[in-house]
Amino acid sequence: MPELPEVEVVRRGLADWVAGRTVSTVEVLHPRAVRRHVPGGGDFSARLAGVTLGEPRRRGKYLWLPYGDGAVLAHLGMSGQLLVGEASAPGQKHLRVRFTFTDTGPSGGTDLRFVDQRTFGHLMVCPLVPDPHGGDAPVPDVIAHIAPDPFEPAFDDTVFLRALKRKQTGVKRALLDQSLISGVGNIYADEALWLARLHGERPTSGLTRPKAALLLSSVREVMGAALQAGGTSFDSLYVNVNGESGYFERSLNAYGRGDLPCARCGTPIRREVFMNRSSYSCPRCQPRPRAARAS
Asked: Which residues make up the CATH 3.20.190.10 domain(s) of the chain?
């Protein structure tokens, strides 16, 4: 599933192509794409006809296109793609929603398409509300409970470190808690833990403040590097708005590298089952906590 770097790459692409344009029509081609918009596809299309979209924004794994006091909120799910291209181009096999704009005419122009093979992603229209976390711009009401991500000005390091210390859980579970810190998923949690030399089952309550601060800086470092590389693509399902894949998978040190040598010490990376998914770490650089070893 796309995490913060991938969603931010898409947001930047949309800013170049969509901001300031006025929607002409919205065609909903599959009801699951707007399933979270309770009034249905007809209402979704009607509400957006004629609105002028503002600068795209993002929080964690969500992005939205604001207009007036509302927004088009998008979650890409496992395979969702927001693609900008020539309006005259044929529809993709898994095209779910298509936006045209008033400056798109018979002579050419670009449209915006939501393509989703697995239909786990979704779009919805929702109102904007003041950011309860102190951000300088309103946020969609349905994600107001989500914590700021570590690249937002609204993110408070001190607040995060205190909340992390109070958590009675393993450090990886804490990183995946979107009410504590948003945007971190399985890939970048494993990468940050590898960089900080922490095992995911290390109790948050036992982290020293310097170690917790190192973990936060590691999160920023790995996601910042991924952002520079255009995100992480393991297949063709994650792409930028122009259809290009990201390249950060070539720089991964832990995730997906089971049995391959650790780039730091040469020990084979281990794969463990974690919350019905896989977790990767180095047995030597990231030893399990004693309680976890005993169990």
From this structure: 4-143
15, 140, 149, 231, 282 from 107: Cα distances, Å = 23, 36, 42, 34, 57
For the four alpha carbons of 187, 226, 251 and 75, in that order, the dihedral sign comes to positive
Nearest CA-CA partner of 261 in 277, 279, 284: 284
Q: Is 5 known to be catalytic?
A: no
- Of 3, 8, 152, 191, which residue is the catalytic one? 3
Name the average pLDDT for the chain: 90
**pTM for this structure?**
0.88
> Can you list the alpha helix ranges (DSSP code H) found in the chain?
4-17, 41-48, 157-166, 171-175, 186-196, 209-228, 290-294
Q: Catalytic site residue 277?
A: yes
Q: Cite the residue boundaries of each domain of the chain with CATH code 1.10.8.50.
A: 157-294
Q: What span, in angstroms and rounded, lies between the C-alpha atoms of 177 and 82?
A: 26
Tell me whether residue 3 is one of the annotated catalytic residues: yes
Q: Which residue among the candidates 61, 98, 172, 202 is catalytic per the annotation?
A: 61
> Is 238 a residue whose pLDDT tops 90?
no
Helix (H) or strand (E) holding 73: strand 70-75
Instruction: Please provide the CATH number assigned to the domain covering 157-294.
Output: 1.10.8.50
